[in-house]
Design a protein that fits this description.
With 358 residues, the chain is of the alpha/beta class. It has helices at 5-13, 17-27, 30-33, 51-56, 89-103, 139-142, 164-170, 174-185, 194-202, 211-221, 225-238, 240-247, 251-284, 286-321, 326-334, 337-346, 353-357, and strands at residues 42-43, 60-65, 74-82, 112-119, 155-158. Strands 1-2-3-4-5 form a 5-stranded mixed sheet, sandwiched between helices.
Amino acid sequence: MATKPHDHLFRYVFGLPEYAAAVMEAFLPEHLARRLDLSRLTLLDPSLIDAELKKTIGDFVYAVPMTAEGSSVVVWLLHEHQSTSPRRMALRLLRYMVRLWTFAKVGEHLPLIVPVVLSNALRPWRAPRRFSELYGLSEETWAPFARSAVDFEYVVADLAAASEEAIAARVPLPFLRLVLWSLRARGSPATERDAAWIAMFRALRPLEKQDPLRALVRYHLSMTKGAASRIIEAAAEADREVEMTAMSLYDRLVERGREEGREQGLRAGREEGREQGLEAGREEGREQGREQGLVAGREEAREEARRGVAATLRQLLTLRFGPLDAAALERIDAAPLSTLERWTLRVLTAERLDDVFS
C-alpha cells in the first residue's frame, strides 16, 4: 500500500499508460526498448491476477507486445518504485516474479518478465543490479555456475544519477518531466532552476492542468514548507489557469471556506437578529428590540463563521494527514473562531497533526 508522498504520486502517474510508456522508452536499455512496441503498452489485464496476488507483487505490471513481425509474444514489465536502494532489491524482485509465474492465470508458457525500478533515492543507486552479485563470489568462482544458478539483471531508472537537463532530453512530455524532476528533487527544486520549471508549467497540455496537475501539486504540498511555496509560486508565474488549479488545493480552499462561512453567518445572523428584534420591539419597545436583534445577529454571525472555518480546517487536515480521529474532530468542533483561524494557518508548515494543535 502506498503510504509516502513519493508513492502516491508514482502510483497516480504511472497508472496512466501514456506516462508509463514514456518513462520506459526513456530509461530502458536500447537493446530492450527497440524490441518492444511501447506504443501498445497497457496495464496487465486484472483478470490475470487474483486479489491476493495483487497485494504481494510490486507497484505495476504492464503488458507490452514485441515489435518482431508476426510475433505473438507479450513481455511483462514489472515496475517498482523505490525511495531508497535496499541491497537485496534483486531478491525482492525475484520474489515478485516467482509469485507472478506461480499464481497468474496464464497458459502453458511462463510470461517473460523484465523488472524495472524507478528510484528517487537521495543518492545514486548503490544496490547490486545483478542477482548473482548477492552471492558475493569473485568472477572466477562464479563463472562455472553462471549457466546453472539463478541470475538476472534488473533495470534502474536512477533519477539521482541524472540531471534535470538529462531527464528533459530523454522525456518529451512536459508533465512527465515535472513529475520526474519533482521526485528527483524530493519536493525541493533548486532556486536556480526556477526558469526551467516555469517553462514546463507553461508547456502543460490543457488536460494536464486538471487532475494530473492537482496530483503533482498535492505532492509538493505534502512535503516541506519551502517546496509547497515554491511550486505554487512557479505555477502562479506560469499562467492563471495553472495558478487557479494549484491555489485551489490550499490558499483558495482556506479563503473560500472562510468567506463562505462569514457570509452565511452574517446572513443568518441578520435574519435571526431581525426576527428577535421585532419580537423584542413589540414587548419592550423599538429601541430595545433593535439592540437585542443586533447583538443576537452578531453572535449568530460569529457562530456561522466559526462553523465555516471549522469545515475548511477539517478538509485541509484530512488532505494533509489523512482521516481524523474522534479526539481531533472534538477539538475542532469545540474551538472558538480565533483558534480555528490560527490552526488553519499552521496547516501548511506543520509536519505532524499535533503541531497544528500545539
